[in-house]
Automatic annotation (TrEMBL), chain A:
Name used for this protein in its record: High-affinity branched-chain amino acid transport system permease LivHM N-terminal domain-containing protein
Residues in High-affinity branched-chain amino acid transport system permease LivHM N-terminal domain copies: 14-114
UniProt-annotated location(s): Cell membrane
Pfam family, one: BPD_transp_2
Keyword field: Cell membrane, Membrane, Transmembrane, Transmembrane helix
Organism for this UniProt entry: Methylobacterium cerastii
InterPro entries found in the cross-reference section: ABC_transp_permease (IPR001851), LivHM_N (IPR021807), LivM-like (IPR043428)
Membrane topology reported for the UniProt record: Multi-pass membrane protein
Transmembrane segments: 20-39, 51-72, 105-127, 133-153, 160-179, 185-204, 216-236, 281-300, 331-354, 366-393
UniProtKB/TrEMBL annotation, chain B:
InterPro entries for this protein: AAA+_ATPase (IPR003593), ABC_branched_ATPase_LivF/BraG (IPR030660), ABC_transporter-like_ATP-bd (IPR003439), ABC_transporter-like_CS (IPR017871), BCAA_Transport_ATP-bd_LivF (IPR052156), P-loop_NTPase (IPR027417)
Name of the protein this chain belongs to: High-affinity branched-chain amino acid transport ATP-binding protein LivF
Record carries keyword Secreted: no
Family: Belongs to the ABC transporter superfamily.
Residue ranges annotated for the ABC transporter domain, each copy included: 28-260
Encoding gene (name): livF_1
Pfam families for this protein: ABC_tran
Keyword field: Amino-acid transport, ATP-binding, Nucleotide-binding, Transport
Molecular function GO labels: ATP binding
Amino acid sequence: MAAATRGAVGLPGILKDAAFYALGTFALCVPVVAFRTDAGPTGGLELTPRWGLVLALCAAIFLARLAQRLILMRRDARRALTPARSQATEAVGATPNAGQRVSMLALWLFIGIALTLPVVAALASGSLGEGRYWIDLGILILTYVMLGWGLNIVVGLAGLLDLGYVAFYAVGAYSYALLSTTFGLSFWVCLPLAGLFAALWGMLLGFPVLRLRGDYLAIVTLAFGEIIRLVLINWVDVTGGGAGISSIPRATFFGIPFTAGEDGFAARFGLTFDSMHRVVFLYYLILALALITNVVTLRLRRLPIGRAWEALREDEIACRSLGINTTTTKLTAFALGAAFGGFAGSFFAVRQGFISPESFNFLESAIILAIVVLGGMGSQVGVAIAAVAMVGGPEMLRNLGFLKAVFGQGFDPNEYRLLLFGLAMVAMMVWRPRGLISERTPSVALGERRAISGAHVSEGHG
Amino acid sequence: MSVAGINVLVEETRALAAEKAGVRKTLLSVRGVSTYYGSVAALRGVDLDVTEGEIVTLIGANGAGKSTLMMTIFGAPQAREGTITYDGREITRLPTHEIARLAIAQSPEGRRVFPRMSVHENLQMGAALHNGQYFAQDLERVCALFPRLKERLTQRAGTMSGGEQQMLAIARALMSRPRLLLLDEPSLGLAPLVVKGIFDAVRDLNRRDGMTIFLVEQNAYHALKLAHRGYVLVNGRITMSGTGRALLADPAIKAAYLEGGHGAPVEA
Ligand SMILES: Nc1ncnc2c1ncn2[C@@H]1O[C@H](COP(=O)(O)OP(=O)(O)OP(=O)(O)O)[C@@H](O)[C@H]1O
Ligand SMILES: [Mg+2]
């Protein structure tokens, strides 16, 4: 009954509200969308009015708002009538809740798709070569998954807001590029070195910011990222400056090059040569690296150091008074997060064969951070899903032909990437303010103590 | 004779017996400590002793510097003047985490439990110092002390009631097996019955386990009744000290801290 009354009274109000939103959209559109400026034949600016587009946008907003209000209204009404099944507090008991079950399912789904992607792509599009687009996209997404998981250690677990994460990505990439082009070291030697260098830089950043938290930390790390980029641009003798470093040695199959020749990969393994072998290899390489990042993070979360990170995020003062050395705790978080960034960086370099400071600008840091935040700080599966959405999403848009029909031939969705970012962020903050997967699984569930590693295992039957 | 009277008698005998044993040594000694926030002094030359096996209560008005004194003992902020000695060793300049490793634990003002971690994990953090060596038996012990916690081991600490969080804060401090336990206003915002439960637990810890306890309280009546000795802090200075009973009987204290408030019973 309550619902019916509310619905009857609410409808005009909701219509008014939606109209108000449409009006707001109109006001915003007039200066931004309504006129397109082109250079006219005489060199002056020509204004092309686009009122149709403005109208379409206003109508879209109107309908979206209307739908949202109606759905919310019905949900509220339903909630008001049915007693809440779950209490405000979390239920006592260790059975996994819906959120955790979903994330377990998503985890296996994710791993399954990731493992079979090259095969599926090849089968679906006829040959490996034709499936290349999908495999490349997979590599790109997995790179961001790995970066997201790496940054998650710093931001999600230890709670240290780092806006300059791309600096470590850059350090890793340049480490591999410089070591391989000047000393001729192989990728497999450079990979750990790149991680090590990045970790050192992580510590270097960690020291001066030990006492900072929150906003201040964010600003300093942001500056750090920019400093690294500027050094890369200006230290021309070593880094090649803005031109970057090219002809970086390609990846080999543990020493066997992917070439058509006698001792190439294909010949050695009795396959016919296909340039796609290298791409598939790269795909599985980044998948392995990403999974290693994940496994290490999950393991560490159960060890004292991982606990210390989480405790640090929750309350630094309480942490200290429990005898935890917050200095080393922070430094290890920075160093480890940076090391994974370094690994990803050297993978980036070996994949591209060419790097320049352009690839390591603030936008990259922002994307990685957005992935972590959207994923629900601290949730591994959430980060993976967010990476797929943030990196794969714009790519998908590119393929949607009908958008061109709506917005005109010149429409390139990639130009609207940042707009989508903003929209995704706003939508998330409205509907899931704590990220996609906000459930934090306790690192120890009572009753399955055998799964716990570390010192707490031996006893703990409380 | 009233029940309260008998309690007082029992306590006196106990205190006397302990003194006669004569082996008690000073565990914590604060000498001439001044602490500043910037250029503002919060403590001005505080002297205070806590003897092994004692409950010592510190009372004082809001802003007197009680929490500051507790935090200064823990090294954050550090004392600008004076010395703090614990178990014969000077700890004035030690960093907080090293002080904690000397078997001093605190339940800080405002509880400061780790809200997104479960009760169980909070307790594990408390046991981090010993790498979980005694975790199982200590868990049992604190669960016996606070049965509420046992029911709620898997609950997120941040979703518990204020009183439960207070119990957790104390329990977490106990998990590190301290010799000296510092408690800052454990009764803050709790219902009288819960307060009684917490004070009973404190008394148990002291009587049964011989734990030394330094208690900061607004709830002067209960705290002084519980304590062997007490100090009064006014504007960063210790103005009075004595046995709990003597302070309770003092007219000045009665006027300033007991009259009309803080659970003092109306006695005929
Ligand atoms: N971080 C700080 N920075 C500056 N001044 C502080 C800080 N902490 C406390 N103070 C000041 O120091 C004085 C003592 O504060 P303290 O917290 O020790 O009081 P308290 O006796 O614990 O009071 P309450 O009973 O209200 O908890 C107060 O005047 C307070 O304003
Ligand atoms: Mg205080």
